Amino acid sequence: VDWGQLDYLVIDMPPGTGDVQLSISQNIPIAGAVIISTPQDVALLDARKGAEMFRKVHVPVLGLVQNMSVFQCPKCKHETHIFGADGARDLAKALQLDVLGDIPLQVNIRETCDSGQPVVISQPQSDAAKAYLKIAKEIVRRLPVPPA
Questions:
Q1: Strand, coil or helix: what is 16?
Q2: In sequence order, what are the beta bridge partners of 66?
Q3: CA-based torsion, 95, 101, 103, 104: positive or negative
Q4: Which residues face 99 on adjacent strands?
Q5: How many domains does the chain divide into?
Q6: 9 lies in some domain
Q7: pLDDT of 97 strictly over 90
Q8: Nearest CA to 100 among 45, 59, 145, 137?
Q9: Mean pLDDT over residues 19-42, rounded?
Q10: What's the CATH code of the domain at 93?
Q11: pTM
Q12: Exposure pattern of 115-144 as b/e (b: 16+ CB <10 Å)?
């Protein structure tokens, strides 16, 4: 594929340390990796393996994102940590990485994505959109400056 001149190319990969991750890290110059995980223990095992693999192949790990960090009931606003609390934060500390942000578990995130109008486009002032934009800014801030 000829992408032309790009500012950024983001590749969303499945969790783990499989052939896809190794092939990409060996064949494409990568400015950095972001590890995304829910706070639950089983997901954090894959996140740890991924971060360690990228470090072994000399890809800078820019930080961790805690996905589905909290569910807030749309009616009563009570918050529930369905997948546990702060698991990605604990892992980041153990790996000496920064947490780039938290993405809540919200129905409107799924609905807006399914409709083709992601929350950052359809509801740019929402807390969910602000969470995504904060993470994007943190990632860009950590990337090396491209040559002019």
A1: coil
A2: 37, 102
A3: positive
A4: 64
A5: 1
A6: no
A7: yes
A8: 137
A9: 90
A10: 3.40.50.300
A11: 0.88
A12: eeebbbeebeebebbebbeebeebbeebee
